[in-house]
Design brief:
79% of the residues lie in helices and 0% in strands. With 210 residues, the chain is mainly alpha-helical. α1 packs across α2. It starts with a helix and ends with a helix.
Length: 210
């Protein structure tokens, strides 16, 4: 007679091992994706090349991520976590609106600075690849939503003398916290550190926040 108790214990153990292996495989694929984007950009980035570099089959990648778009979303989430983007939750809960603006700027300038080469590749590919473009637009939409909240908080309860309307100030904050602007500022000033130092003042003057 079979020992049903032993079998029931064995099944969760085997499931745990499979999940652990799946996690390692997923991490290996994401690591390969990042390396390929940094080194070769779009020329090297494909499901086939990722499968080969990760030592798995293309079907395995489909099983893990579903589609190329799903893989990109997961990769972008990982990049954001690694660079501390989870701090945006704290930013949005900041009670003082000026401190909120400072922290909002700091989160994004730090994020762009830490991933400048990778993000340059991604934004370059996004200009010509629809899936990359959609993934980048989704991230930019989230930043616009957060920027709108920051401007609303700055304006709340204040009899403002600002002449330009909220939509213009939101657009300005979104533009000046974009990777494209940060990258151009680095090129102009010469160093990432200089760009991080100058960015807050530029933004505050542009949206007239003292």
């Amino acid at each position: 007679m079979k020992n049903s108790g032993s079998d029931s214990c064995k099944r969760p153990y085997e499931l745990g091992k499979r999940l652990e292996q799946m996690g390692r495989t997923k991490a290996a694929v994401l690591a390969s994706a990042r390396v390929q984007l940094e080194s070769g950009g779009m020329r090297e980035f494909s499901m086939e090349s990722l499968a080969k570099a990760s030592g798995v089959t293309r079907q395995t990648i489909h099983n893990l991520f579903g589609t190329r778009s799903g893989l990109l979303e997961t990769l972008f989430d990982q990049i954001a976590r690694d660079a501390g983007m989870e701090r945006m939750r704290e930013v949005m809960m900041t009670s003082d609106p000026h401190a909120m603006l400072d922290r909002f700027i700091a989160v994004f300038s730090n994020f762009w600075a830490k991933n400048s080469l990778l993000l340059k590749r991604i934004h370059g590919i996004a200009a010509i690849d629809p899936e990359f473009g959609e993934a980048v637009r989704a991230r930019n939409h989230r930043r616009r939503t957060a920027a709108t909240r920051v401007i609303e908080r700055l304006d709340s309860g204040v009899q403002s003398k600002i002449t330009n309307d909220k939509s213009e100030r939101v657009a300005c904050l979104v533009a000046l916290t974009s990777f494209e602007f940060f990258d151009a500022l680095v090129d102009s000033l010469g160093t990432v550190e200089a760009a991080e130092e100058q960015l807050p003042g530029l933004i505050k003057r542009a949206i007239r926040s003292d």
